[in-house]
Specification:
Layout lengths: L3 H8 L3 H8 L1 H13 L5 E6 L4 H13 L4 E2 L6 E5 L9 E7 L3 E6 L2
Parallel strand pairs: 1-2, 1-3
Antiparallel strand pairs: 3-5, 4-5
Helix pairs in contact: 2-3
Length: 108
């Protein structure tokens, strides 16, 4: 069963509408992630925000990042939004986005 927001997001090809739905800050960070993470990679994301809108937006971001695969156990990349990366064994800093976004990459 498709999530109700999926059709809504996909029905608006215009980036400004997606920016409005997700919020400009999160939208820009997700574009950054999508450009820098290979399409065949897996990821998981973390957020320290307690704002309900931001937490819901991160859930919807899963659809925005497609075809990347979100997996919780041992992903290729870890995305941190408004959260400091933990000392992740087996991961190294890959990219940073302004002062609120970090991507870690699994060490080979």
């Amino acid at each position: 069963m498709e999530h109700p927001l999926t059709g809504y997001l996909n029905s608006y090809a215009d980036s400004e509408n997606k920016r409005h739905i997700l919020g400009a800050e999160l939208y820009n960070f997700l574009i950054f992630c999508k450009v820098n993470i290979p399409q065949d990679a897996s990821y998981d994301y973390y957020s320290a925000t307690q704002d309900k809108k931001d937490n819901e937006a991160l859930v919807y971001a899963r659809y925005f990042l497609y075809p990347l695969r979100r997996i919780v156990s041992d992903p290729d990349y870890k995305i941190y939004y408004r959260s400091d990366p933990l000392n992740e064994s087996g991961y190294k800093l890959f990219k940073t986005f302004r002062d609120f976004g970090v991507i870690l990459k699994k060490e080979q």
